[in-house]
Amino acid sequence: MTNLRVGHGYDVHRLTEGRKLILGGVRIPWEKGLLGHSDADVLTHAVMDALAGAARLGDIGKLFPDTDPAYKGASSLKLLEEVGCLLGEKGFSVVNMDATLLAQAPKIAPYKTQMEENIAAALGIETERVNVKATTEEGLGFTGDGSGMAAHAVALVEKS
């Protein structure tokens, strides 16, 4: 039996006016932001779900319910730190993390390195263990028409 575990995370949020756009903990100048109870950082939410899944902790809805006022406007990077602590308490360490943002716009290339650094720092791991990328959906669906954004993440963790 191996001590390696894989988890997959997926999250989606609607774009709306009057909100800041935060992805991977980076404030990106854009005319719309993501709607949610916390800062609605769809990329970091997918990362948290992948890690929680790999360690059999449930999901972010269980860990940080949107019915709890304590998480209203919360920084998703701070919540990711909490997930990292829970992993440690259960004897898990992060081997690597790969995440993909699905959005027609804006382009994230100028922010990708900072996103990777933010996620790695929140988890207390080396940046080279984190990969962030993005894709458009060729104008198709809610991500393609600019109604929202989605993200997928895959995590590999090891139990000591």
In short:
With about 160 residues, this protein is α+β, with helices and mostly antiparallel strands. The protein has helices at about 40-55, 60-65, 75-90, 110-125, 140-145, and strands at about 5-15, 20-25, 25-30, 35, 90-100, 130-135, 150-160.
Q: What are the main properties of this structure?
A:
5 helices, five-stranded mixed beta sheet, two-stranded antiparallel sheet, about 160 residues, about 30% helix, single chain
Produce the secondary structure layout.
Elements: E1 4-16, E2 21-23, E3 26-28, E4 33-34, H1 42-54, H2 60-63, H3 76-89, E5 92-102, H4 112-123, E6 130-135, H5 141-144, E7 148-159
Parallel strand pairs: 5-6
Antiparallel strand pairs: 1-4, 1-7, 2-3, 5-7
Helix pairs in contact: 1-3, 3-4
Radius of gyration, CA atoms, in whole angstroms:
15 Å
Report helical residue fraction.
25-40%
> How many helices?
5
Distance between the termini: 13 Å
Query: Main sheet: which strands, in order across?
Result: 4-1-7-5-6
Give the helices and strands as they follow along the chain.
EEEEHHHEHEHE
Can you summarize the main beta sheet?
A: 5 strands, mixed
- Indicate the overall shape: globular
* Main structural class: alpha+beta
Uncertain regions spanning at least 5 consecutive residues: none
Report strand %.
Answer: 25-35%
Quote the average pLDDT: 96
Number of strands: 7
How would you sum up this structure, described in words?
With 160 residues, the chain is of the alpha+beta class. A hairpin with a 2-residue loop joins β2 and β3. α1 packs parallel to α3 and α3 packs across α4. The longest helix has 14 residues. The chain is globular, with a radius of gyration of 15 Å. The mean pLDDT is 96.
